[in-house]
From TrEMBL:
Homology family: Belongs to the TECPR1 family.
Pfam families per record: Hyd_WA, Pex24p, Tectonin
One GO term describing the cellular component: autophagosome membrane
Residues in the signal sequence: 1-19
The keyword Repeat belongs to this UniProt entry's keyword annotation: yes
Name of the protein in question: Tectonin beta-propeller repeat-containing protein 1
Domain Peroxin/Ferlin: 66-127, 139-172, 830-891, 902-935
Cell compartments where the protein resides: Cytoplasmic vesicle, Autophagosome membrane; Lysosome membrane
Comp. bias intervals (Basic and acidic residues): 1159-1187
Single biological process term from Gene Ontology: autophagosome maturation
Keywords on record: Autophagy, Cytoplasmic vesicle, Lipid-binding, Lysosome, Membrane, Repeat, Signal
Annotated GO MF terms: phosphatidylinositol-3-phosphate binding
Amino acid sequence: MAMSSSLLWAVDIFGRVYTLSTAGQYWELCKDTQLEFKRVSAVKHCCWGIACDHQVYTYVFSGDVPIRYQEETYENQRWNPIGGFCEKLMPSDRWQWSDVSGLKHQQLDSFTLPSPHWEWESDWYVDENIGGEPTEKGGWTYAIDFPSTYTKDKKWNSCVRRRRWIRYRRYKSRDVWAKITSHDDPDQLPDPFNDISIGGWEITDEPVGRLSVWAVSLQGRVWYRENVCHHNPEGSTWSLVATPGEVVQISCGPYDLLWATLWEGQAIVREGIDRNNPQGISWSIVESPSSENGIMHISVGVDVVWSVTKDRKVWFRRGVNSHNPCGTSWIEMVGEMMMVNVGLNNQVWGIGCDDRAIYFRQGVTPSELSGKTWKAIVSGRENDRSQTGSSTSLLSAGCFFTDDIQNQTNAIIHGDADTSSDTELPSVSVDLANTPPLGAAASNSGNGAGNQTAEISANLTVDSLDSDQGEASVASTSNEKAYLEKHKSSTNQNPSAELQWTNIDLKEAQKHPVLSVSTFAETSSLSSLGMFSVGAEEQYGADEHPLWAWVSGGGCLVDSHSLLKWFTVPSGLTSSVQSLSLSITPAQTAAWRKQIFQQLSERTKRELENFRHYEQAIEQSVWVKTGTLQWWRNWKPHKWMDVRVALEQFTGSDGMRDSILFIYYMYHEEKKYIHVFLNEVTILVEVLNEAKHSFALYTPERTKQRWPIRLAAATEQEMHDWLALLSMSCCESRRIQGPPSHHAIWSVTCKGDIFVSEPSPELEAGPHLMPCDQMFWRQVGGHLRTIECNNRGVVWGIGYDHTAWVYTGGYGGGFIQGLASSADNIYTQSDVKCVYIYENQRWNPVTGYSSRGLPTDRYMWSDASGLQECTKMNTKPPSPQWSWVSDWYIDFNTSGGTDREGWQYAADFPASYHGHKTMKDFVRRRRWARKCKIVTNGPWLEVPPVTLWDISIIPSSDADDEESVALWAISDKGDVLCRLGVTQQNPAGTSWLHVGTDQPFISVSIGAFYQVWAIARDGSAFYRGSVSPKKPAGDCWYHIPSPQKQKLKQVSVGRTSVFVLDKNGNLWYRQGITPSYPQGSTWDHVSNNIRKMSVGPLDQVWVIADKVQGSHSLSCGTVCHRTGVQPLEPKGLAWDYGIGGGWEHITVRGNATEAPRVITHDTSEEDPARSMDLEDEESKGKTEHSKTAPLMVTEEQELDRSAVNC
């Protein structure tokens, strides 16, 4: 289960390209080593470079998902009385072979591959799909004339027809340097290139993966590469951009920032870059910070600019942002550099003048963009590792093992002394740092690498990114300058003995040409000096440490939580420690564990033997915790009131614990209380409320009413303390502990919180069904948007940022700490989502559209409903756990479409909006978005690198634990993927297998017998044929007609049942599915007002429903269970309502718990009060069940504003 990592790219002085992973410790030589490069510019998924032949090359990373491009052309025919439909068209008609508009002639043989880096995936074939509906064989669609609206049905007046032909080409040059071939006019070809920079991927996400590629030729001219995007990684043509002078070097940020340097030493800034004009409009000139020395090099990030002048001084530009790309003034930084490079998150790297080492700028945060200090990256290179294991000075292992084990260890070490050390070494236990020093001999056996030795030794501990190591910040430059000047004067006096400090930005140095052992011990520790051996000093072998010429961090993601291994000895500690760690096998470690465990068990038995005759003591105690909270009172007017809360926990004579929560309040100056037995509490859940740190407490009765007990704390920490305590008490009362079982039901709230419930056998069948409002839910740490599981314990989740996560088997995390959380398998998890607000305007005859509305209008800055005012200033992240990670930007991906400025138009508020203005449109709105990020922890590990939209795991299987589990997914780009290598022991799997489709998909589900169904983005349904364990991807797609006039959005397949959900919230069941005809025959309507659904391995149906009636309000996002599901009644009979509202997703695909077979009566007569059409409880009305009754309520009833929604 690899954690996600990104790469820092660099070029050494010999033109070799290396990469350094944020999770690694070694520079790795680029796979394609045939070329020598001058410089490179990288982003996450690719790198562009200029080779020594001055030509441009691109390096696209390989991945499980191929880069495909769909070519299409249309075949047109007209009907004539003699021969029927034929190829003979009228002179005024379009071409026989044309594009979709009919204006461009496109014959099949006119399509050629754009470059040698592409290959055809298949031959031409006919598309038999129109608007989500399958066409007749042959794919023809009919119309009265060209151009017109086409339909799949041939009518008496259909005079013309057309069909679409499709062919895919695939980009094949991945993990190699692909030369950018030019098809331009020879007279317009660019000169040989001198510099290149890529960025601009945040300007717009249309088309997917769009990049801005800028280059500078040897003649000083600037060129822009057109149409570079995900499905066209090479781009199409070079276009010349006029400049006010000859340009030397250029730098492009991830957004709209673009700076370049001129021969004269000035900088020029490109203005007017936006999604509609990625090349910008004009240049502005910025003077050099020093009149004597012009700018030599420049690099930009999101809103920062760093530069290097000709005297090698480093400068930072103040006041740079999208509104003022030129900034305000220069500040001199500390240190002297050949070049600097700004990467993701505005992190900065540089190459030192004197030693040509790469330095990282520590302490760069959103609040301190200039950072604090420079720190050298001392990572070794991959090909230098063979040098590190050459000596075998052995450590004494006696300090960590018992005598018996020490003897085994010594035998192992001597037996395996010749083990090769080429493999990457596991990190050594922390105990090694506390071992006694080996003596001075180990530190004197070097061969002239003393400066590297000390540099590495001084950094043996892993530094977190934002630690400043006690060094002076940028502000105190006077001391730092003095330091570096002294350091220069002492440089190279005794290179073999001098210890070179890693901080180049300190311009001041102590005049110690040679450091004594005592001085060195203050810097790191004496033990780390003592453990040095010949191997570590020979680290760079023949060619000393690498000399770098260029560095690029545009694809390197580093933030304040990153723990980098770049600043420590690359080889772990020493070669002797390596030989020790290499020699210890897992089998030997297991033997030691077993031996230690046996010794401990024997000691415990001996100690307990003396107390056997004592009588067993039984403790009966009461423990009380009290505090002051606020309570949302029961009576009108509803408001918050101060209350005293007491939790009494008592231990009974049987040793079992139970708890009662008392809430004391004042009513008409009379002291009253309410109490709750915690063994009746079904869930504790945080409530999303900007004004209060509040949480809700549900019991079965309060779940029925949709009216929980709501409590609020003064601080978030106090709320989490109460939540953790109450949650642990609830679990103790119900005797629940440890991780969830394989049959657990998982759910996710609208807030992203994860809850899990252990199902009872009576939940799905039995003489007395367990109502689902009695289910107990406990929280699991982490943050997800959707989750899927199966009964083998394989659980995957997807975050709001589409990152895939796999469950590690732990429990707890988040605010649940201590005994209620597992000690291991808890990892850091982050998620990013968008907060949206709307800018509204009304048209008036004088000023046109303006922010002056009518008195009855909505707020001019509001939420989507228009009922709440939401301005850029007063809109906060969802909770204090979230922090902003971007500025406000216009969202162009709003449903209904937008114009070039992001506006949507309508006749009035509220209405259906469209992306173009008409004569009847008097109002308009546009959506603004801002990204925020949460960092929490839980039992989840990231599954890189493909980001996902939907996921499905086979619900049940009788296979062995070692056999693979079928898992299908949809990427966020719409690709269908099949995960290989998923087992119970390795739930993350190994790799993705791409399954070809003709269009993007949005939902997929695999049934218990490998029935795979999927939904395309246009709302059409597909069935995948011939999927089996031996053929995990199947062979072809079968198009299934959708329900009449409905666009589908989700599918779920159980053992034999197939249910789909359309975009209007209607739930449909597929009739007529048999083993011989797995596609089924017709759709049957089941219910409405459904948001999400999940079909389990017993064909049970659970949904998240909207508009569920309670005693006080309607609640949106309620867990509902379909009762009466039987083989002869697969659609079920009625709905049973569980926890809600505020729920977003549920999965029951792990619950294969079957109750004992008992003959039951018709469930439709058991509980008529829980039927589909529940009336308000006060009316006491009872209605009959209806198999297709609407879910819950009428449209006229409004949602209560005081209802609990997460």
